[in-house]
């Protein structure tokens, strides 16, 4: 598959279209689209314009994208449930890849001066890696407040969208020197925070080293990052359900995560963990935990700041859309106008 063919396929899948649907929207024959995607033929200038119009991106975006690593599922980390439908997670995998390409154009125009970095500790013990990241970022002792702000301070572009399913939590990937995360905004805040920390674990631990159970590693990193051993162990000694509900508000993680952390630290036994989970199930808390709405929401701000940086240079809505590769300002989902940005 050629890079342009991979890009066309990525944009098509990101929109949930079949080749036949793309043909109907672009006026390019389905068999021709198939040849493009399989690298058997290259689109001419007229076809590129038709495809760009269908995708609502600029022709220059397609030309730029073919010069970059644009194939679907390149180095994407994903937190999803086993029951997540393949079509859905492949669509958001492609959507993240598309955002990566739009963002790469943005970072050619705007230099992102991050206060910190997302370090690489490939293959490191997750607990040790989480401790080192907290130290490097100089996080205050105790719970992590406004996790998304710390991520953005380290140059991580966080995009939130309603995925339309509870079975897919989030994805992450690198844009050259900067990571990008795509997070399901429909999740409760405690689950969003866990997903942010989980994806940070992937970025830290699995930049090159991807051996073993990488999802378990990312979860172990998230637990240690959000609930450091030396800070939470005493609070998790023989906890009651009422105490766990209070700790949820303090640490911004789910009751289930607190129970699992208590077991991993050895402050409860397997039998006690089972008993606590049975109590959660009996009260219906395994499906809908109490208190999630009282945890302060995680609100990304970096995209708004990047847009303001472009506006300060005299760029209007149309200019900004063109810079990041969209056909028009209303199609710009990476750096939408302020009112739309707050709604996402």
How do the helices and strands line up, and which of them pair or pack?
Blueprint: H1 3-14, H2 19-26, H3 30-37, H4 45-55, H5 59-65, E1 77-80, H6 86-109, H7 126-137, H8 147-153, E2 157-161, E3 168-175, E4 178-184, H9 189-205, H10 214-226, H11 229-232, H12 241-251, H13 255-264, H14 270-282, H15 302-312, H16 317-324, H17 338-343
Parallel strand pairs: 2-4
Antiparallel strand pairs: 1-3, 3-4
Helix pairs in contact: 1-3, 1-6, 2-3, 7-10, 9-10, 13-14
What would you say about this model in short?
The chain is α+β, with helices and mostly antiparallel strands and 344 residues long. Helix content is 53%, strand content 7%. Pfam families: HTH_3, Peptidase_M78.
Fold and architecture overview:
- There is one protein chain.
- The chain has 344 residues and is of the alpha+beta class.
- Strands 1-3-4-2 form a 4-stranded mixed beta sheet, sandwiched between helices.
- It has 3 domains: 1-71, Orthogonal Bundle (434 Repressor (Amino-terminal Domain)); 126-294, no CATH class; 302-343, no CATH class.
- It is built from 17 helices and 4 strands.
